[in-house]
Amino acid sequence: MAALPKPAPESALAPRVLSALALAPLPVAAIWFGSPWLPLLTGLAAGVMAWEWGRLTRRDGLGKTILVALVLAAVWAAALLPVRFALLLTVAAAGLVFSASGVSPAGGGGWAALGVLWLALPSISLLWLAQSGRATLFWILAVVWATDIGAYAVGMSIGGPRLAPRWSPAKTWSGLLGGVLSAALAGWASALLLGISPAFPLVSLSAGLAIVEQFGDLAESAAKRRFGAKDSGSLIPGHGGLFDRLDGLLAVIPTVALLTLIGGRSVLSWR
User: Which end of the chain is more exposed for a tag (fewer CB within 10 A), N or C?
Assistant: First the structure.
């Protein structure tokens, strides 16, 4: 049986909290003021993460530049044209990257194409969800931030059996539970603020999205382990790169978009 991980030192929490507080006003302001600020910030974040992904997967300078250009093209298409066109552009761009590489999915071309999909699809989904109003995006941020804080705080304090030691040795089942409970509380608070009754559907959905968020984090950890990297970059103190900070959000946004499509209306209106 694998040894249980030791709780992280409390000093590691401070830079994480300070970084989160410093970054939070940007997306909140962009969502509040909408276009053109939200598309601009989304494109900037996607471009930075595409560069980090190229660095992580060992692309050369030209390779990273192409990745950034393709991801940005998809984001700007979503901001200016019908979302359906942006989705087609994203899939076509990923196929082009893969075909031009002339390698198997396990090789560099497959990872580069995955990066296009991994970053462009959530960006497009975010801009599409923004069309139905600010509330959904603010709720998503609340759930993701609550999950991160709850998972880190509980995992650091309690420790216990590891969640997925092959992908991320530091993550624990107690941390996952802490994230789920924190997300449920964020859902409950959101329901109160938005006047949603009954609150149970939103609370349950928020808790479920916490699991999606944690597995988005695990997916990026698996990619970093595959390439022998600790972080995707060094942009944010206490977090590494922007991709490290937003990996869970990248999983939650398209999930909410898919649920919205399936339900035919905003998930905030579910009863």
Answer: N
Cβ neighbourhood burial of 205 (10 Å; 0-12, 13-18, 19+): buried
Q: What is the pLDDT of residues 155-209, one digit of tens each?
A: 888 878 888 888 877 888 999 999 999 999 999 999 999 999 999 999 999 999 9
- Residue 173 CA to residue 269 CA, distance in Å, equals 31
53 and 232 Cβ atoms separated by less than 8 Å = yes
Pairing outcome for strands 162-164 and 168-172: antiparallel
Question: Rounded to a whole number, what is the distance in angstroms from the first to the last CA of the chain?
Answer: 44
Continuous H helices in 131-195: 134-158, 173-194
Q: Enter the tokens of residue 91.
A: 């899939």
Distance between CA atoms of 148 and 214, rounded to whole angstroms?
Answer: 8
Write the pLDDT tens digit of every residue in 58-112. 777 777 888 899 899 989 888 888 888 888 889 888 888 877 665 544 456 688 8
- Whether the ω angle into residue 36 lies within 30 degrees of 0, i.e. cis, is yes
In angstroms, the CA 54 to CA 242 distance is 13
Query: Quick check: bond before 198 cis, omega within 30?
Result: yes
Query: Tokens for 199?
Result: 């609150």
Instruction: Domain ranges for the chain, please list them.
Output: 12-269
DSSP-derived 3-state class of residue 165: coil
Return the higher-pLDDT residue of 8 and 37: 37
Q: Tell me if 163 sits within 8 A of 172, measured CB to CB.
A: yes
Distance (Å, whole) CA 186 – CA 167: 27
Angstrom distance (rounded) from CA 103 to CA 97: 10
Residue 268 and residue 194 in contact, taking contact as beta carbons nearer than 8 Å: yes
